[in-house]
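Why this split exists: single-chain examples teach little about how molecules sit against one another. For that reason, every record in the complexes split bundles all components of an assembly together and asks for one structure covering all of them. Below is a record exactly as it appears in the raw files.
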Amino acid sequence: MKKSQDNPPLKVQNLSKFYGSLQAVNQVTFEVQPGEVFGLLGPNGAGKTSIISTIVTLEEPTQGKIEIFGHDVQKDPLTAKSYVGWVPQEVINHGFFNICEIIKFHSGYFGKSLSEEETNQLLKRLDLYNHRHKKVKQLSGGMKRRLMIAKALCHNPKILLLDEPTAGVDIDLRKSLWDFVKELRSQGVAILLTTHYLEEAENLCDRVGFLSHGRILRIGQTSEIVTDLTEKTIELILDRELPELKNSWVQSQKGNEIHLKVPMTKGVFEGVRLAGIDLSHIKDIRVKDGDLEDAFRRVMKEGQQ
Amino acid sequence: MKSQKYLPFFSLLHREISRFFKVAAQTVLTPMINSSLYLLIFGISLGPSIHIEGGISYLAFLIPGLVMMACLNNSFQNSSSSVVGAKFGGDLEDLKSAPLTPQNLIWAYSLGALTRGLIVGSLTFLVGEIFFYVSEGHWLAVQHPLILMVFLVIGSFTFSQLGISVAFWAKTFDQLSAVSGFVLLPLIYLGGVFYSVSNLHPFWQAVSRSNPLLYLINGVREGILGTSDVQMPLAFAVALAGFLVTHALAYWSLKKGSYLRW
Ligand SMILES: Nc1ncnc2c1ncn2[C@@H]1O[C@H](COP(=O)(O)OP(=O)(O)O)[C@@H](O)[C@H]1O
Ligand SMILES: [Mg+2]
C-alpha cells in the first residue's frame, strides 16, 4: 500500500470539537511521525481527551479532519483504526472475562489471532502473566493500567495513543512504562501521549504541544521550546561586595550574593562575565537550567492575557 | 500472527456467547425454570378444565407459545443487557475504537442472542414434551420444523435488534427494565401465548390482530402443532417487516448513538 508509506502515521488538521455550545477543541493541527513521541500537554479540561476520542472515532469532529497513514478516520474508519492502539484515560471493566480472554477478544477485533506463546510473551512483558486468570475487578490499579496497555499493544499497532497513562500510578510502574514507551519508539511506533507531569514529558517527548482551552498555544521540539522560552538561573556568592551592577540579567544583588537570569543559549561563565562580574571573584555558584515546566508556565500565563 | 478478514466479527460473536454462558444460572437456568412453572401451573394444573377448539389439549396449545416467549424474551435480554453492561464498563468505547462496523455489531449481538434464545426455547420445549408425555402417554410431534425454525430465528433477531436499540438509547438500567416490563411483556402475553384469539370478543380479536407478536407466536404454533389463529403468509410478512424495521432501528442506533460510557 503506497498510501500508507507516504503519509505520516497521524495527521490532525484544523480539528475543532464542540459539545453543544462548549468548544473543547479549537483549530488544532499537528502530526506525529514514526518513531516519535509527541506529548499533548495541558491542564485538566484543556481538550486532550477530546482530541484522542476523535482519533478513535468515539467523537465526531465538528470541523477538520484526522488522517492515519492518509486514511481519513471518518471516511475509511476500518483501515484507519486498524493501525491504532489506544490506552483510554479511564480503565475499562470487561465484566466476566479474565486477562487472557480479554486479550484474545481484543486482538481478534483487530483481525489478529495471537498464538498462546505470543499472548504469554506480551503478558510477561507487562508483568501480568501470573495474573492472567484474574478478572479486571481482581486487579490492582497498576495492573489494570498495564492491562490497558497490553490491550493497546496486542495487535502490534503502528500508532499508540496514551491518554494520561501515568495518572495515579506509582513511581516504579511509571518508570517502567516510560522505558516501555522508549522501546516502542525505537521500534518505529508513533506515540501520542497526554500528561500533566511535565518533567516526564520533558524526558520522553521529542516534540510537545501546549494545549489550553482547546487551542495549541505552542508546538515544537521539546528542547527548542525549553531553550526559547526559559532562562538559566545563576546564583553567585562572591568573595567581596561589588558596586551596584547595571545589567538587566541581574535579578537581585544583596551584599556579596547575586542572582542572575541569563538566556539558555549562553554558557554559565559567559553569562556571568557578560553581566559584568569578574570570574575570579566567585566563591560559590549554583546553576539551574530552565525546564519544560517553566516554559509551560510562561506560555500559559501569556495565553491568559 | 495472521490477519483475518472475518476475525473481528467472530471474536465479538465468541465474546457474546461466552458472556451468557459464564452466568448460565441467570441466563439459561432461571428462564427455563420460569417456563417450566408456567407449564406446570397452566398446562398441568389448570389445563384439563380449559377447552381449546380443534381437539388439542391446553398443554399442547401452551407449549409453542411458551417456547416462543422464552426465545423472544431471552433474545431481548441478551443483547440489551450486553449493550448496557458494555456501556457501564466502557467496553462499548473499546468496540468503537476497533475496526468493527455497525453491521458486525448487530450480527454478533443477534447471533449471540439467537444462541441463548434457542437454548432456552429448546429447554422449554423439552420440559413441555416431558409434561406432555406424562399426561398424554405419547410425545408431541413437531408438524412443520421449517416453519418453526423460520419464526424462531426471525423473531429472535427482531427482539435482539430491539434490545440493541433500546439499550443504546437507555440512560439508566431502570429505563431498560421499563421497556421490557411495560411494553414487551404485555405484548407477548397479549399475543396469544395463553389463549386462542378466536375465542375472544370480536373487538378484542381486532385489537389482538394489531399486535405483531400474535403473528410471531402463531407462526411457532403452526410450526409445532400445525394449527394457528392466523394465515401463514400474513404471519411471515409481519415477521419479516418486524425484522426489517428493527434492523433499521438498530443500525441507526449504532451509527448515530453514543458509545461513551455512563
Ligand atoms: N462528552 C462530553 N460532553 C460535554 N462536554 C464534554 C464532554 N467531554 C469533554 N467535555 C468538556 O470538554 C472540555 C475538554 O475536556 P477533555 O477533552 O476531557 O479535557 P482533558 O482531557 O484535557 O482534561 C472540558 O470542558 C469537558 O468538560
Ligand atoms: Mg483527559
